[in-house]
Please model this.
Amino acid sequence: MKNTIDELAIATIRSLIIDMTNKAKSGHPGMAIGSTPVVYTLFKNHLVSDPTHPDFINRDRFVLSSGHNSALLYSILHLCEYGLSLDDLKNFRQLGSVTPGHPESNLTIGVDATSGPLGQGIAQAVGLAIAEAHLRESYKDGNQLVNHYTYCLCGDGCLQEGVSQEAITIAGYNKLNKLILIYDDNGVTLDGDLSLSSNDDVKKRFLAANWNVIEINNGEDLNAIEKALKAAKRSTDKPTLIWMKTIIGYGSIKQGTNKVHGAPLGEEDGKHAKEVYGFNHEEFFIPEEVRNIFKDTFIARGKKAYEDYQNNFEKYKKNNQVAADRFLSLINGSVDKYLPNELPEIKPGEVISTRAASNKMLNAYALALPNLIGGSADVASSVMTNVEGSKTFNSKNYDGTTINFGIREFAMTSIQNGILLHGGLKSFVGSFFVFCDYMKPAMRMAALSKIPAIYLFSHDSIAVGEDGPTHQPVEQLVMLRSIPNFTVIRPADAKEVSGAYRYAFNQKETPTALILSRQGLPVLNETMAEGVDKGAYIVSKEKKHADYILIATGSEVALALEVQKLLLEDKIDTRVVSMPSWEIFDAQDEEYKTSVIGKDTSKNISLEMLSTFGWDKYAKYHFGVDTFGLSGKASDVITHFGFTKENIAERIKSFK
Model:
């Protein structure tokens, strides 16, 4: 047996990691074992959270960026009594368990952020820290409402991913001093020694990004870890990196090598490691004194912090009734009572791009919503995400509501995930549509985590024109439509933009992307904002019997109406349907769907200046773009690809 309670607790956690991965016959024990001392010290002595109130708004946040080390997190959550049972640990990585291979925030209580794709955890932690700073400064005496730390554990892989550098520079620029990143430097990646792929000077990298750096030469040294955490919390003007040297798979016969990175130790080596720890017990054994140490430290501290917060909040409420009521109503994620009653006037016949219409809506929502924050990747004037009168969020104005993310699309999107995971805020981010390629991994993370993120994308088709195929989206709409639990809306005009905003801001668990035009589009008599709520609706009925049904999205709805008139001259009767969202339409009942696009789709025609992939479920014939675009005047490019009323009408005539 080990001599001290700390040594016994660390040995217990490491043994649980070995048992979990061995029983599952899969998992990543190496870094989990190496990081155990620092995570143990963090939870025992520093992290403030109440497992009986896991959504406590003023709790510290902990993000396991290296999500493959989930066995460590689950072991700690079990000991801290977050509701994970010993059976849950035994079901590690099994179908239907709440202990999946990588942590999921919407599945497992106590997990503050979904992680696994390396680097994104760091960016989400930056988002959590931004939310903390913003909320703290957005209320009178806000430090009485929100005042906590964000901790993040990462490894070599997280720091190699490019998103980490994007996020690190944003954190340093904004002086997020309550963000503490712990870097487990074990010098090993899955394929071998880190030296095979990297010789970065990590210290200089973080110093250059305006971070503090604290070094720990021995990750087993609890005194050094304790001093480092205390020093990091004292920082007043910079985020802090705690750079800690560890031995991957400590105690294993294969310690220090990639052999323990992603494979269980096995029974024999597991037994050897436990002997090194001085832990001679059956599998999944937890000494009572180890349970008690967490009860006496983490659990007691969290309970007191929660009770003190509630008492102090009542005092705050007496002196700040309006602010307190607003705070309470918004931390639960609902903004229904704040949604704008009056929206910008939309006049049929007016010609306005949907990006400009979006800007009008965004400003209306920003005036009404007291908790809206967002920004773009250095394209605010082009995507039209500027909010009139808003202050810029930075170290001098944490109450600012406009974030200048710079040209960092991936980090921007992942940071938004962190902002929304924190609670209390609504947010949006914007970019050119084609650059959602940079953002997709974090958009997928939002959908997986059930985060109601909002994305504003402009320059939605080949109508981008002169910028050419590098900037003209073709396959991007298909990509976003393929993401589960994700809604894509491509509005036909300003009225549908209004409906799209209402839909997006009412979502609680689903991300929404608005796909907006650069070119001016007519506000159509036939469209309606409410049509967005159905995903598709009839904008112009057939005269008698529909020979064809034209189904269009975005700018092509106006074109479809013109084609309808031309065809009628040749006695070809058509129906025109606007389909701003596949996902919303697919969620309607069969009776409604049939009433809009018919039961037999063999006479249906899709019109969309993007890839035709996926349209077969709604139509037999397609007008789209299945090659890359071209550089030229928008009108010339559109004509080249056949999106004129004359060309489309003539081709439809040939279908008969």
Observations:
- The mean pLDDT is 97.
- The longest helix spans residues 288-319.
- The longest strand covers residues 179-185.
- DSSP finds 23 helices and 20 strands in the chain.
